[in-house]
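User: Can you help me understand a structure? I only have the sequence.
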Amino acid sequence: MEQWHGTTILSVRRGASVALGGDGQVTLGNVVLKGGAKKVRRLHNDRILAGFAGGTADAFTLFERFEGKLDKHQGNLLRSAVELAKDWRTDRILRRLEAMLVVADREKSLVITGMGDVLEPEHGIVAIGSGGPYAQAAARALLEHTQLAARDIVDQALAIAAEICIYTNDRRTIEVLE
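Assistant: Let's start by predicting it. Here is the structure, written out as tokens:
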């Protein structure tokens, strides 16, 4: 069976603000199945931002597990991420899930993978998915060479990625913590 493609998730930090956004396109092979998917969510009383790349059902399973970890660890992002990554890597069922998560709170931004990785990015920028490298490059240039707010950088970088990556569209969802 063909793999799902079509996600660009980007998070940018500037000052006390963090923005996380994603495009809305979901494709199967060379067919666009949906243009307005919401791949970015607020979790844990709106204090955590999360976005996903990969299979939708897999991502929702991971969101639920991650919310459980946040509840168990009183909203501690890093501890919850590490615990989810450990479960994801060692659990026979979770191990088969094909997705990646970007999570952020007011202090940290992280990528969580099924390989057991919890990664904190350099430069305050996190990008995953098919258009991630394009969005990351655009965001880094905008962060270093403009005074734009984090939300505006995410918006413009996702727009640039949509012009380059065939698996990224211009319908964006952006959430901000300030």
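Now, to help you interpret it: The chain is about 35% helix and 30% strand. Residues 56-72 form the longest helix (17 residues). Let me know which part you'd like to focus on.
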